[in-house]
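Components:
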Amino acid sequence: QKEVEQNSGPLSVPEGAIASLNCTYSDRGSQSFFWYRQYSGKSPELIMSIYSNGDKEDGRFTAQLNKASQYVSLLIRDSQPSDSATYLCAVSGGYQKVTFGTGTKLQVIP
Amino acid sequence: DVKVTQSSRYLVKRTGEKVFLECVQDMDHENMFWYRQDPGLGLRLIYFSYDVKMKEKGDIPEGYSVSREKKERFSLILESASTNQTSMYLCAITDGYSYEQYFGPGTRLTVT
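Structure:
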């Protein structure tokens, strides 16, 4: 079983819609959760961190964490073509090591 | 802003060559990491370092070694490059207070 699982996609949404990206993890002791955006040929860029159950909003992005269900999600409101990228979910249980999912490719259709 | 630089964006080497990939950070961060990224396999940790001259193996250390003689510089060494080491190599740092990782631009290495 993979430690961090994501649907590889592609997830296609029309411009202006809400994109919903999901991630599950296997280590119940995980404490820190991250979403990274990676454009083709570029390195990952941190867009959200979440550490406690519930929602965390930053502009058009909302991260949601449910530790009981071992589930993290990222909502992107008013999706733009510039949001088209691969989104990586990452989880840390401590000691600075972070485990990454393989990513979900998002395509926003104009 | 955190700045992480890597010595080359693209590199082509021959099988059997010794390859050095260098990562430099401009802040006083203790923790530095080397990953490789391959399609369908995601990011895999090769080695990390939590202080000068300290290193720990990651998930796939075979065929690689590292060096950290100064705090700002973390080098990945391929002792004898092989074609299965063709990949995107990414260096990252964390600040020691959170586990947020910040990446360099990456080096796309091709071994022929």
